[in-house]
Amino acid sequence: MTTLDPLARAAALRFWSGPVEPIALKGGITNANFEVRDRGRRFFVRIGDDIPVHGVMRFAELAASRAAHAAGLAPAVLHHEPGAIVFDFIEGTTLTPEAVRPRPMLERILPLVKRCHYELPRHLRGPVLMFWPFHIFRDYAASLRDAGSPRVKELPPLLAIAEDLERRLGPVELVFGHNDLLCGNLIDDGRRLWLIDYDYAGYSSALFDLGNLCSNNEVAPADEEWLLGAYFERPVDDQLRHRYQAMKCASLLRETLWSMIAESFSTLDFDYAAYTADYRARFQQAYDSLKHH
After folding, report:
1. Which keywords are on file for this protein (predicted)?
2. Between the CA atoms of 260, 265, 266 and 271, what dihedral angle is there, to the nearest 10 degrees?
3. Most buried by CB count within 10 Å: which residue of 78, 85, 135, 253?
């Protein structure tokens, strides 16, 4: 086992009081995650280097993670080294899409999203990133072409749709977005919710996080409508509804292209081809619905 092996890297961190035996945890599709017991405590360790092709820069993740803790969203950062962050371990249940969807859970999630958008930035230090999905689409496409991906022939119609979505969206108000609201990034400890994993955090539109939350977890249309009204604290009009649907499509397209990139570049053991197929179908369905309204 070399020092490049994630488990060996987790075990070798300077933070430990002595030899440790990291336990691999399931769920990471950008990082390798481990539980480590040391000094009578449990710690959560994320191992992952910069991933420029995905726009993941660990200095930004570290800054956002620290700010998220200060804003009461996420566990404390206890230690970091290049390619590794050690957090307090959260005892709780990782949510599933089925757990996210009910209205009472959405009512618990919404304050976390708003706190991320408006309170977290008050605690940020150092340079920060912008997360603009339409730039990301163009960059992903260029990376796929550079890699000679078999997906290249699929790109022209997808990029044409991306331009249409950007026009439909129009001007946006910037907030500090989480930008990866998968169910696996929400933990319920029985008393409160935690919002974790700030790999993709950066300034964006609130509509991306809302569309991302609902598209990733297949939230029912009536609950999407409630979420929009509750977030913006006003009745939902046709313009807001249309802009939201455009960004929801963008979220699904981003997940599709992200997975296409991962097919070519990721070394993690994950079925990215199936993930691509799933999100490509969901994206097309959402875009077809948008065009007919």
Report:
1. Kinase, Transferase
2. 40
3. 253
